[in-house]
């Protein structure tokens, strides 16, 4: 089966008619369907499938063991996301295994395809949750207590999906098997369009994090409350949104976004009692926290002016990552020196990179758009990516 053929098989799973694109969130019905589909496909290729303590699925080609060559990505999406972010790396891995197997290759090293849980943080708020738990880069109790929009905790969701919540946490034994990790991913900007190339090797991931700003005011009647009598948390929230753009524009190469803002209770004729907004801030190097401090100062002043309060909570943060030099050089050599690309997107490979040599391959996205239904990859490029992945996996595992 080709990578495009495999993608087509899951093309109807988790479509979101309201937002467009796909909404597939950790352990929800569509994501569970994709997990089952992956396991079935992997078993069909003769791989042995198991799920770790943290909800990551591993499909082993031959017996598990140390110094394993591991490749994969994720099957969850952002709300209303595209078809490629995540699944492309998973289907390309399956296609690469089939291709290598059919030409008679058998890995000399342990070899696994992995599907990481909750990469987007779309349900529980922390991106790359499965790989952070595997590597112990998030506290297990914090992870267990993360809540989705309905108040369900990660521990409860895990229990409902058949995992023991008590076992959620660092998994040094499993991590100790990983010798090298490789993730293929659709490109999320226009780097490869500009370079005129179908595939690139990843170079760096910029530092990034998420902060929650909770504004508290006085819920009240939209008609009966005079303007002078209001403590409307929407005002400091709005001032914060505009400050995010203004302040980020003054920091070289910064990206800062408010993509989610929730007024409670959320009625047209109701002054909100609280407004929560989430800041996604990313600056190369060490400048992200300082930018967030500047934004926080504006939020505090605006809250005070309106008679409101604001609480700022850091939900996640990751430093800059440079992918392993030797692996990058090897990948480039084996693939005929494709271009190297930095990215502003976060990935499980960047979490793993703190522990094992890790690398990435990107596949051209002709729209340059991602985290949107318009994300795309031409099937020729998809196949070029899967072929490149097979080439490097063969080299790494022989
Ligand atoms: C995940 O895709 C992210 O970079 O937000
Ligand atoms: Mn994504
Ligand atoms: Mn992704
Ligand atoms: Mn990502």
Automatic annotation (TrEMBL):
InterPro entries in UniProt: Amidase_Cbmase (IPR010158), Bact_exopeptidase_dim_dom (IPR036264), Peptidase_M20 (IPR002933)
One Pfam family it belongs to: Peptidase_M20
Keyword Zinc set for record: yes
Residue positions binding Zn(2+) 1: 74, 85, 185
One GO molecular-function entry: metal ion binding
Cofactor detail note: Binds 2 Zn(2+) ions per subunit.
Cofactor(s) named in the record: Zn(2+)
Keyword tags: Hydrolase, Metal-binding, Zinc
Residues the entry annotates as binding allantoate: 210, 269, 282
Binding site for Zn(2+) 2: 85, 120, 371
Keyword Nucleotide-binding (UniProt): no
Similarity remark: Belongs to the peptidase M20 family.
The protein, known as: Allantoate amidohydrolase
Naturally occurring in which organism (per UniProt): Amycolatopsis iheyensis
